[in-house]
Amino acid sequence: MTRASTPAKINLIFEVGELDNSGYHGVNSLYLELDLREEIEIKPSLGTATLSVAGDLPARHLNAVPTDSSNLIFKVAHALCEKLGVELPAIEIELYKRIPVAGGMAGGSADAAAMLVAFNSYLHERFETKLLTTPELKELAATLGSDIPFLIEGGLQIGVGRGEKLTPLSPLTFETHWVVCVSSEGLSTPVVFAKFDELFHAEPFSDFSALKIAGLEDLAAVMSNDLEEAAIALLPAIAITKARLLELGAVRSMVSGSGPSVIGLFSSLEQAELARVSINNSGGFALVASASYAGTRLED
Ligand code: C5P
Description:
Elements (H helix, E strand, L loop, with lengths): L1 E18 L5 E20 L5 E6 L3 H5 L8 H13 L6 E7 L9 H21 L6 H9 L5 H6 L2 E5 L4 E4 L8 E6 L6 H11 L16 H7 L1 E2 L2 H7 L2 H11 L4 E4 L6 E5 L2 H13 L3 E6 L6 E3 L1
Parallel strand pairs: 1-8, 3-4
Antiparallel strand pairs: 1-2, 1-12, 2-4, 2-5, 5-6, 7-10, 7-11, 9-10
Helix pairs in contact: 2-3, 6-8
Bound molecules: cytidine-5'-monophosphate (C5P).
C-alpha cells in the first residue's frame, strides 16, 4: 500500500494575460497552499484499475467526482506508466477528498499531484521502475494541468506561463486563517476564462519581486483576482458571499481562482470559526483552513 496527500491552493494574486495560440492564457499568479488535504491510497488488486471516492464533503461534491477513465487520476496513471515504459497494473485507488469540487481550489489537480507522487513510488517499489525526481514529476505534471506543478511542492510560489513556471518564496512570517465559502453551483474554468476575454482586455503584469507582505494588512492590500468579475457575471450570488464574509469580520474577501469558492481572510482562528458556523447555520457551506507549507508528501 502506498499513500500520499496534497494540499489545496488559493491564488492570493491572479493576473490574467492574453489568450495564446494553445488556447491558454498567460498568468501571473501568487499561489498559497492551504491545509485542506486530499489523500490517495494505492493497493494492488485483481483485474483492472479502479477508483473509489470518500471524504469530508457534502454528497453532491463526492458524487460529482467521476470514477471512470475520465478522472484526471487515471490520466496521471497512464502518463506515468507510459513515461516509465510499463503497462498499467491492476490497482485499487482510494481517494479521500477535503477540497470542494469545481470550486477554484484545484481539487482535481490536487488528486493528480497526490497520484503522481504515490504512483511514482508504488511503481518503483513493486516494478523497480526509475524513481522520477521532483523536477521530472513537475515536468510531467505541467502536461496534465496548470496547477499541478505548484501543488507538488506547495507553500508560497509565484507561477507564470500557465502557472507552471514557478519561483518559490519564503513562507509568510505570520499565520493566516481563511474561511472558504463553497457555492452550491460549480463554475467551469474555461467558461470563466472565456467570460474574462469577453469583458476585459488583459493588462500588463505586475512585478512581484518588489512585493512586501509583512502582515495581514499588507496581504489584504495586495490580494487581487482578474477572474473575479467574470465569475460574478456568471454567478451573481458570489457578490453576496463576498459581502457576507466582510460583515462577519473578514479583513478581505475574494473569489478563489476561477471560482465560485470565495475566500475570506481572518485575523484569528476563533473569528474564522465563528464566521464558518454562522454561514453553515444559515444554510451555506463553509470550511476553515490555514496557510501551510508542506506540499505533496508520501504518508506512512
Ligand atoms: O490547465 P487546466 O486543465 O486546469 O485548464 C482548464 C482550462 O482552463 C483550459 O483548457 C483553458 O481553457 C483554461 N485555462 C486558460 N488559461 C490558463 C489555465 C486554464 O485559458 N492559464
